[in-house]
Amino acid sequence: MVAIHETAYPRLKAQLSDKELIQFFTPTEEERKLSEQHTRDDASQIIFLTLLKTFQRLGYFLTWNQVPDAIPNHICHCLGFIFLPPLPDILDGNRFCANEKC
């Protein structure tokens, strides 16, 4: 039987191996430069790259709450940060949209 993360509607596995993190979620030099050009601080750069890499893997965007912690932690490590900087409150999932229709 095919695993759910390998179907036409892919999902991320709850537990990602180090090999998967390196293979699918390590930003390239071009992606790093792009994130530096379009973000203002370290937290925004990590958010940008996390959403970019998850979109590349799945073909659709996730909300921040759907992203396994291992991915931003891996990207943080790739960028040379010792720990994940404080992220904006907007990512708590309760205030993701500006209007109540979302």
Question: Quaternary status of these chains?
Answer: single chain
Report the structural category.
mainly alpha
Mean pLDDT: 84
Number of strands: 0
Q: Report the C-alpha radius of gyration, rounded.
A: 14 Å
Low-confidence stretches: 94-102
Largest sheet report: none
H/E element sequence: HHHH
* C-alpha end-to-end distance: 35 Å
Strand content: under 5%
Question: Roughly what percent helix?
Answer: 40-55%
Shape: globular
Number of DSSP helices? Answer: 4
Give structural notes.
The structure is a single chain. With 102 residues, the chain is mainly α. It has a domain at 29-84. It is built from four helices and no strands. It has helices at 18-25, 29-38, 42-58, 70-78. Helix 2 (29-38) crosses helix 3 and helix 3 crosses helix 4. It is globular and about 45 Å long.
Secondary structure: elements and pairs:
Layout: H1 18-25, H2 29-38, H3 42-58, H4 70-78
Helix pairs in contact: 2-3, 3-4
What are the salient characteristics of this protein?
disordered C terminus, 0% strand, globular, 102 residues, mainly alpha
Brief sketch in words of this structure:
This protein is mainly alpha-helical.
